[in-house]
Amino acid sequence: YVQAGAIDVQGIRSETVLQTAFHGEDYFLSMYEAGFKTKIRGKEGNYRFTLFHDPTRLSRHDRGGTENDNLAFGVSFDQMITDKIGAFFRYGVTYGDVRTFGNTWSLGGTAKGLLPMRPKDVLGVGFCQGITDGSYRDRYNASSSESIFEAYYKIQVTDWCWIYPDVEVVLNPGANSHNDVSVVAGLRVKLEF
Q: What confidence score (pLDDT) does residue 32 get?
């Protein structure tokens, strides 16, 4: 499959959709994705390749001034290993002189039906790391990365209701090694009708 989208990055939430779309400098963030679904040894997988184009003027970290027409590229792979265990890997790269993180990557996995009496529940774990660019580190005295460990448990309450308790532990929040470790807990509810 292929798909594309565009967003008016100058949009104002309190205005109508086209109020800011075609005036002055028309800045539209555009996204393009190509992907395919496959079965490897009968196990489903999704493989996606994404390109982003951001035309807005962003401040440079290294020598001042601005830079526009920033590109970013990413890959995302999800693959079931067995009928109950899946794995994922994601990687993205962008121009680090105008972004906090020039590279990001994550990996993790899911396990379905760990408890015999709960065959449709899913445990998910993951690790994500954003790597700061050298110019960002120099200008802001930042650490080389920000890392996040995450775990969630998807509980199927009914055929149409799921509850997801979630916890994240963030090391070097804001890419600042002087910040304390952050712990974020959340709860999401999904209803399908």
A: 97
